[in-house]
Amino acid sequence: MSGERSESDGGEGAGSEGDEPDALDAAGIPYGGVSNAGFDYQELKLAACGLERVPMLVGVDTFGVGKPDPRVAVEGARRIGRAVGECAYIGDEYDIDAIAAHEAGMAGVWIDRPGARRSSVPEDAADDARITRVTSLAEVPTAVRLG
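Predicted structure:
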């Protein structure tokens, strides 16, 4: 979850996967993790990926429910000090990430990576005007108007 949607050019686009927190930090945009995994478990996963600097905001154990429940997105926004409409939610699942974010009032960004998916995706999902589709994390700064 990223805490600002703007027309700003306050940061530069990331050059490679993993540089995205640097772009967000450079632009002064708060961010954090929202997950359907338990809070502590997700912190361990972030650390294992070298992303320990990404703070966990909300886990499934926060409310006893996970995404797509809109309370999850709303609480994530609250914890970074932003209104829901100022936030972009970036996730790799079309329905429980991007569409759920849109329905909660955020910009939904779907990372449509090749390979197996956890759930089926509509054939026309790539053309869904309600969300922004990217194919890698490197495209995210441009998708949220940082690059």
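Summary: Residues 3 and 30 are 5 Å apart (CA to CA).
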